Structures are given as structure tokens and as C-alpha cells.
Amino acid sequence: MLMGSKTCFIIKLVTFCCLCSFLVTHAMNNQHDHSLDDYFQDHAMKSIPKDPKLGMLYNVSLPSNFTGMEVSVVHLRSSSVWAHGANFGHFRVPPRVNPQPNVTSLDIVFSNLGNWSSYYYNMPNYTFVTPVLGFNAYGVSYTKGQNGHFTSTTNKLEFPLFRNPIIVHFPSMWLPQGKCVKFYSNGLTKITNMSLSRTCEVWGQGYFAIAVRVPPSHAVWKLWVIGIAVGSVGFFLCGLVLFKLIRYLEKKNIQKMERTSEKSEVLDTKYVGHSKMPCAFGIRTQPVIETDYFP
Fold first, then answer.
1. Alpha-carbon Rg of the chain, whole angstroms?
2. Are 233 and 145 in contact (CB under 8 A)?
3. How many structural domains is the chain composed of?
4. Are residues 101 and 224 in the same domain?
5. Domain contains 51
6. Are residues 122 and 253 in the same domain?
7. Is the CB of residue 81 less than 8 Å from the CB of residue 108?
């Protein structure tokens, strides 16, 4: 009974930690969402001319500390978006979209976070294989004050989609498979399958990428332990085989020396300590004195 209660407590604790991690990541992504949107929109309004050409894509200049990001903006008529949609960069907006609130014209800001993708966005147990791409639409609305003067306000627009989604086509990636990760502007995060190769269907504005699942850290640790164990066993077996080979060669060499010695003259042997050594007890040729003369 006690063992079961401990197991239940551990399961609840792990579930709570995972939930906290997801909520913290979700909150951080939402915070990045708003800060990036405001930042890009501010620089886009500074980069676009006062009288922009309709349908022309303008590059947005960013400070040098954001090298690697790409931002552009296009000015469109709302009636054109309704009739023809919009197809710019990596995004294709279908026709029959009426931006809300109603405006005469709108500006769509496109962004490519490049090597900053993982810094601003992350998803637990997933890694990005494409840069994070984003788009947001803005429109200027005018309100008449009590003094009769009009004041302009720039608002983020909504794209109500009823039949067809917005298509996001990603640049080439190094993995053929992956999941569409969607960070919508309303704070919703979704993971779905790709509709086509390198293509995701989205139902709103925000930031999007393709990611692949990675094993959790404890699984990686297990793989490291198994790899080290297998490597150690392999190293031991290689050492054992090498040791046996050296012993075998030494034994063959000794046998060869013994066969060679057997073919030569046989000498007597004696023990010196614990070693058996050849020994000659006599002199084969006795010395002969050539003369008996001694001085």
C-alpha cells in the first residue's frame, strides 16, 4: 500500500513539472510574440514610404544586433485581398478574406527569424528544422473627435478564414518529415502534420515553423550509458584477443627454438636454482704440450 502511494505521488509530481514547463514556455512565447510584433511593426512603418505602391514588397531595415532576421512589408487594398488574396514571400492568403475591423487598406508585415528562431521560440521535446516565419496585418482606422478633427490609430487586424486556410511554404530543409508548429497571435500553440512537403496550413496570424521530435534527456542519458558499456566490453574483448595472440606467438617461437636446439649436439643439463640449463662437464679436446722444454 505504501509502495503504491509513493508511485502515485511520483507520477503526479512528474505530471505537475511537465505542466509547469509547458505553461512557462507558453507564457514566454506569448511575451516574445507581442514584443516582436510591436518591434517589427514599428520598424516597418518607418521603412515604408508615405505614399507606398500597392503590392510592392519593401525590405525593412533592422539594427545590426538583429543580423540574420529578415523583415518586409507590403501595402494592399482590402478589396484586392477580398478578390484575389495575397501571395508574398512564403505566405499565400486565399481570396474572400475580409480583414477586421474594416479598413480601406492594410499593411502586412512578413518576418523570417533565421538563426534567432530558437532564441525567441521553443517547444519542449522538439527542435526546429526550418526558420520561424511570421506575418501580421495592420490597418489604420480614423476616429472623429469632439472638436471635429480625425485621429489615426494603427491596429492589428484579424483575418477571418471560413473555407480555405493560409498556406505557409518553407524553404528547403534537411529532413523530409516533421511537424508544423504554430504560435498564433491569440496565444494558441498547435502541432499538426504537414499538408504537403515543406507546407503547413494555418488559420490565423502568428509565427510558424517545422520541427522534429527529439528524445527526452533521460533517454539520451540511457543511450550514453549503453554506449559506454558496450564500448568498454568491446575494448576488453579486443585486449583479451590481443593478449592471447601475443601468448600464442611467444609459444610458437619457443617451440621453434626447441626444435632447432634438438638438431644440434645434445648437452648435459643441470639445475641452477629453479632453472634447467645446458651444461658441459668435460673438455672435448685435451690440450697437448708441444715440447717439454721449460725455460
1. 41
2. no
3. 2
4. no
5. yes
6. no
7. no
- Please name the residues in contact with 182: beta carbons below 8 A apart, sequence gap of 6 or more: 188, 189, 190, 191, 192, 200, 202, 206, 207, 208
In CATH, what number is assigned to the domain containing residue 89?
2.60.220
120 in the same domain as 234 = no
Contact of 169 with 93, CB cutoff 8 Å = no
CB 167 within 8 A of CB 194: no
| Domain end residue (candidates: 195, 214, 233) | 214
Residue 279 lies inside a defined structural domain of this protein: no
pLDDT tens track for 12-51: 444 434 444 443 344 344 444 457 888 999 999 888 888 8
Domain, as residue range, for 254: 219-264
Q: Please indicate, yes or no, whether residues 227 and 81 belong to a single structural domain of this protein.
A: no
Q: Which residues of the chain have pLDDT under 50?
A: 1-4, 6-33
Contacts with 276 (C-beta within 8 Å, 6 or more apart), sequence order: 269, 270
* Alpha carbon distance 25, 12 (integer Å): 20
